[in-house]
Every structure is written in C-alpha cells, then in structure tokens.
Amino acid sequence: MLNQMYPLMRRFLFMLDAETTHHFTLKTIKWLHRHGLEKIYSTASSSHAIGARILTEGTGRHMALANKKKLPSPRTLMGITFPNAVGLAAGLDKDGAYIDALAVMGFGFVEVGTVTPRPQRGNALPRLFRLPQAHALINRMGFNNGGVEAFIANVRASHFAAQGGILGLNIGKNADTPVERAAEDYLYCLDRVYTHASYVVINISSPNTQHLRSLQNETALDALLTLLRERQQRLADQHQRYVPMLLKIAPDLDAMQIQVIATALLRHKMDGVIATNTTLSRENVKGMQYAEESGGLSGAPLLSTANWVVRQLRVALGNEFPIIGAGGILSAQDAISKQDAGADIVQIYTGLIYQGPKLVSDCIHALT
Fold first, then answer.
1. Please, what is the angle between helix 332-341 and helix 358-366, to 10°?
2. Nearest-angstrom CA–CA distance, 270 and 232
3. Is 5 or 196 the better-scoring residue by pLDDT?
4. Considering only CA atoms, which of 357, 328, 355 is closest in space to residue 346?
5. Count of domains in the chain?
6. Which of 47, 67, 107, 175 has its Cα between 20 and 30 A from that of 222?
7. How confident is the model over 282-327, as pLDDT tens digits?
8. Among the options 198, 206, 298, 361, which is catalytic?
9. Residue 156, Cβ density class (10 Å: 0-12 exposed, 13-18 middle, ≥19 buried)
C-alpha cells in the first residue's frame, strides 16, 4: 500500500522540516508495527528478512509474511549468514528504538547507532537539509543520542536479533571527549554493546564531530585498532562468543590514504570495512539550495565517489576481505554498481527517504 502511495506521501512529508519528518515517520511505523499493521509499509521481500519470522511487538505472536517470489540469495561473510544482501545503514535509528519496525521492510540486516558513552544533544538546529533536485541530504546531526545505557535498553527490548535477525551496533565518541582520548569512549561502548551485537562498527568517519576523521590517519588508526582488537579478543574469551568488528571510513580519501587504511585493516586482522560515510564535497550539488550548509552530503551525488573507494579497497584488500558498500544507492542499478565495484553486501539510508520502502525489495531482487 505504502509503495503505491509513497510518491504522494513524500510530497506532503517534504513540506515539513526534514528532522521533524524524520521523527514523525519513525514514530508512525513503530505505531503501525505495534498494532499489527506492518503490511502497510512492509515490502514483498519482508518474508525473507529473518527467515520469514518477525515477532510482532508486544503480542508474542509470530507473523508469517508469505511470498512466492524467488528467494533472495543469502550471503556469508565474517562468519555471519545474511538472509539477503541489503541492509539498513546506521544513522536512521540512532538510539535503537525502532529496530523491529524497520526490520519488517525486508532488510537482511539492520545497523543502528551511532551511539556514544554519554547522552548528547548533537549540533544546533537546523541540522538536516534536503536537496530534492539531487536526491540528496546534508546532515550535521553530531551523534545526537541518548547514550549507550539507554541504547542497550532499547536493543534488549527489541525482538529482531532474538528471532535470528542480523543486528549491527555502531559506536562513536562523545563530542567533548578530546580526540587523544577517543579510544576510551570506543572501548567503553564496545564493552557494553558486545554481547548484544551481531557485529560492531567503529565509526571514525563522521564529518560532524570535530577532529573525528583524524583517527583515520596512520598513527592514530594504528593505536586505536591495537586497543580495540585487544579488547575484542578479551571479550570473546570472556563471553565465549566472537563478535566481528568493522571500521567505517569516509569517502573523502585519496588513493594513498585508502592504502594506509587497507594496510592497517589487514595488519590488525579487522573483520571488515564499511565504505563509506557521508562526504564533505559539494562538487555535484553546486548552486542548489542548502548546498553550502556544513555537514555530510549523502544520496545520489555520493554514489560514484563511494564506489571508487570500494574499488580501491577491493584491490588493496584482496578478494576475501569483507566490504559493506554504502552511499548513494537510490535504485536497484545503483546497488548492482556497488556490488560490481567490489562490495559483498550493501546498505541504504538516504535512498529510502526519496524512494520509499520499495527500494529495499528492488535492491534485494537485483542482488539475488
């Protein structure tokens, strides 16, 4: 139903402030899901999101969402079998408060966060801008979230992971933590999210936390990954369960910087990489309203740059190293282009805003 109505609904939603629309939409789908009305916005492929079993929130009953179309092809990487190759990128659900409602859209995996040790409001409003002409967004949210303790409470209250869903938890540092002490924040969060995650993502690439991207420099990255890998192994021994850990990197890197990061990933035996976060470049949106707003640009203008980074990483890392491709997917063909660039699986976010839930099933079937 929503797939047919979404173009009209988007016209209405885009009349509202972007961040207001964001919160309104999430609350609406959570209400629909809670009342057993998820079919209004779920896609044809939602039966494959977690093996055709989504536990309806608050009722204890299972919804079997039947679909006779060709089953998506599972993908196995990092020791995890993903039911399909299309996931939700971090950032849409920063506090993990909407996991079950979002999962019904058909995602093969859901990633939530970025979460920080302590609650923080993020940057001043307004901080989210639409560029409809370019099918893009600019955000300078600044890791606004309720802190890791509230985050974990939300994750524990959700049913997605307990029913077999693949749940990624994305962690960062507080804005007022000096970059020299960033590792303390990442370690604090890693300790708390570890047992609740299918995989953990280390976000050092948001452009909206001052100096965060400096952690991608060789010396800083080497020191951070050393500490994180040591803690990961300690937690694996403690809990008798190994949880993969990935690094999320920026698109605004040259070939030499990508090689440095790739070398560090291999040297520290990281489990995977997510490429990419949002871009600071405005090359493809010059002259458009809001184009000069500070923050990270996402959406269609990011596709070619993000794909270039994926290609560079694939060459530098070899064929077996897990790469999750993100950035600029607004169609099934975009998803295919990212796979062709070298991504094993992909994530979407901004495309969902412009295309609606149908984008999920389109991409799933394109990558089957």
1. 40
2. 10
3. 196
4. 328
5. 1
6. 175
7. 999 999 999 999 999 999 999 999 999 999 999 999 999 999 999 9
8. 206
9. exposed
What is the Cα–Cα distance from 65 to 50, expressed in whole angstroms? 11
Contacts 24+ apart (CB under 8 A), 162-165: 162/55, 163/50, 163/53, 163/54, 163/55, 164/50, 164/51, 164/53, 165/49, 165/50, 165/103, 165/109, 165/110, 165/198
Tell me: pLDDT of 45 over 70: no
Domain of residue 209, CATH code:
3.20.20.70
Tokens of 285: 């949106």
Locate all alpha helices (DSSP H) within 240-296, ordered by sequence: 255-267
Pick from 110, 62, 53: nearest CA to 82 = 110
**Secondary structure class of 285 (helix, strand, coil):** helix
Taking 3-state DSSP, the helix, strand and coil percentages for the chain, each rounded to the nearest 5, stand at: 45, 15, 40
Please choose, from the candidates 335, 338, 330, the residue with its C-alpha nearest in 3D space to the C-alpha of residue 310.
338
CA-nearest of 193, 263, 276, 196 to 228 is 193
For the question of residue 42 being annotated catalytic, the response is no
pLDDT recorded at residue 70: 65
Q: Could you read off the pLDDT of 194-250 as tens digits, one per residue?
A: 999 999 999 999 998 989 999 999 999 999 999 999 999 999 999 999 999 999 999
Residue 88: DSSP 8-state: E
